[in-house]
Write the structure tokens for this entry.
Amino acid sequence: MTFEEAVDYFKGRVPVTAEVFYRIAEQYRGLAFTVSGYTKAQILKRFYDEILAALEDGNTFSEFRKNMNDFLKAEGYEGLDPLQADLIFRTNIQTAYNVGHYEQMTDPGVMKLRPFWQYDAVNDTHTRPSHLAMDGKVFPADHPVWNTWFPPNGFRCRCTVRTLSKRQVEARELKVEDKFPAIAPDPHFGTNPAKVKFSPDLKGYPDALVKAYQNREKENTPP
């Protein structure tokens, strides 16, 4: 089934070069899409389209890599190795899905019934120490920690956040944290892309983002 909230988020991203991407203030990078090592607009757009197809149509990782490799080789580039392809695919899919989950979790009705959130890291040998240190921690759903520690919190991050009712917290004897953790997410992953809204003040933003925002505004304006 299509995860509409995830698709809507990803459709709002704008393909840009890595040079432009890293000039954007970190909290707004969730509005842009890039793939390191590629500068041609048509290459970045094809990556974007293949990720969108995975979200909308359920295309698999194998299909993503095959389609991109066929396209890249036709354009005179080397194909993606499995690790590189997995990094691009997993990071973008996980980001979109987590933004979609955030939209569902912050529904007023859900917030009222399940006012606590718990960080859930995959506890295995591949889990980063900083992510593992957050595993199991419970904070109020409206705590500012979720502005920083909402997954993904690094490349290929597998962490998630689950909602809890007051009864569940009490029955499981969970401690509700209040103090902000001293640890930080991985570099470039310290913001919550679901909470970033494009400012109507376009001064100082890269042209690609400005034009994309203006085009979306025209598309969403009733005739």
Remarks:
- The beta strands are 14-15, 32-33, 116-120, 138-140, 160-164.
- Residues 82-105 form the longest helix (24 residues).
